[in-house]
Design brief:
Layout: H1 4-20, E1 29-32, E2 35-38, H2 40-48, H3 62-71, H4 82-94
Antiparallel strand pairs: 1-2
Length: 106
């Protein structure tokens, strides 16, 4: 299904990956001698069976983590609208909340 809420999900995954410097849902990545492949069937099956109900938290600043987790909610109806997400990011900027992270190897 094409929806602006899918873009919000992508934003949340990108923010999550930037904060943790890891690939989201790494446990579903299969390694091959020629590279990697995401096990979409297992991922979808785990969501359907409710074995996977949300992405792992970031353990970052609570307000930022709340934004990220709301964007990647598996129920697209509960994801924020783009304008709402933008307002949250802007509010965090105004409060000097977003500071550079210390260097950490990837």
């Amino acid at each position: 299904m094409i929806s602006p809420k899918n873009d919000i999900y992508s934003l949340g995954l990108t923010l999550w990956e930037m904060v943790l410097r890891e690939k989201p849902f790494a446990e579903y990545i299969r390694k091959f001698h020629r590279g990697e492949d995401f096990d979409r069937e297992k991922f979808n099956a785990d969501i359907q069976a409710k074995r996977l109900t949300r992405i792992r938290g970031t353990q970052c600043w609570p307000e930022f983590e709340e934004l990220i987790l709301s964007c990647v909610n598996f129920d697209r109806r509960l994801r924020p609208e783009a304008g709402e997400a933008l307002l949250t990011v802007r509010a965090l900027q105004v409060t000097d909340f977003l500071q550079p992270l210390p260097d950490r190897p990837i």
